[in-house]
Amino acid sequence: MEEENKETTSEQNNEEVVSIKKTELEALMKEKDEYLDGWKRAKAEFINYKNEESNRLRDFSRMNAYDFIGGLIPVLDSFDLSLISLSKNADPELLKGVQMIKTQLEDALKKKGLEKINSTKGDQFNPELHEAIASVPSDLPENTVVDEIERGYMLDGKLIRPARVVVSKGKEN
């Protein structure tokens, strides 16, 4: 009988131990899940942070490029004016050399995303690309480009300087 009591007590003790161990295991599993969820959140937050910083750096770099390339546009204008002047009374070799330098500069800027806005006589005036600086009577229809005074430019599809143009008022009565 004593042995039976010992066995029953031993079984009860084992069941209690198993029950306690199950409770401890459940608590540890819950704690593990909490740590894992926290780690996943921290990892996602870090990935978001990296993406935000990458975007911020790209935007900063793009703004610096806009400023730098925007500062070179007047240099292109000066080249155009000098070529006009040189074509009238300069050595053809000098004219060719200046034209080559201008072409090199334009090619380098084109590689960085600079595009010319081509405005020719007869084009429809587009306020998104053109800035009308004068309006004159003309045989051309109203709101048509008569002349381009200053070339416009876009950088990466974004307008950085509108083309300055003379626009037709239409025929004068």
Describe the structure.
This protein is α+β, with helices and mostly antiparallel strands. It has a domain at about 115-173: Head domain of nucleotide exchange factor GrpE (Nucleotide Exchange Factor Grpe, Chain A, domain 2, Roll). The protein is about 60% helix and about 20% strand. It has helices at about 1-90, 90-110, and strands at about 115, 130-135, 145-150, 150-155, 160, 165-170. The strands form 2 sheets. The protein has a 3-stranded antiparallel β-sheet. A 3-stranded mixed β-sheet has the order 2-6-3, with no helix packed on it. Strand 4 (about 150-155) and strand 5 (about 160) form a beta hairpin. The longest helix has about 90 residues, at about 1-90. The protein is elongated. It starts with a helix and ends with a strand.
Structural class computed from helices and strand pairing: alpha+beta
Based on the structure given, which CATH architecture of the domain at 116-173 is correct?
Roll
Order of strands side by side in the largest beta sheet?
1-4-5
The global form is: elongated
* Strand proportion: 15-25%
Radius of gyration over alpha carbons?
38 Å
Distance between the termini: 130 Å
Unreliable stretches, pLDDT < 50, 5 or more residues? Answer: none
Q: What's the helix count? A: 2
CATH superfamily of the domain at 116-173: Head domain of nucleotide exchange factor GrpE
* Mean pLDDT metric: 89
Q: Give the fraction of residues assigned to helices.
A: 55-70%
Output the CATH topology of the domain at 116-173. Answer: Nucleotide Exchange Factor Grpe, Chain A, domain 2
Pattern of helices and strands? HHEEEEEE
- Main sheet, how many strands, which sense, barrel? 3 strands, antiparallel
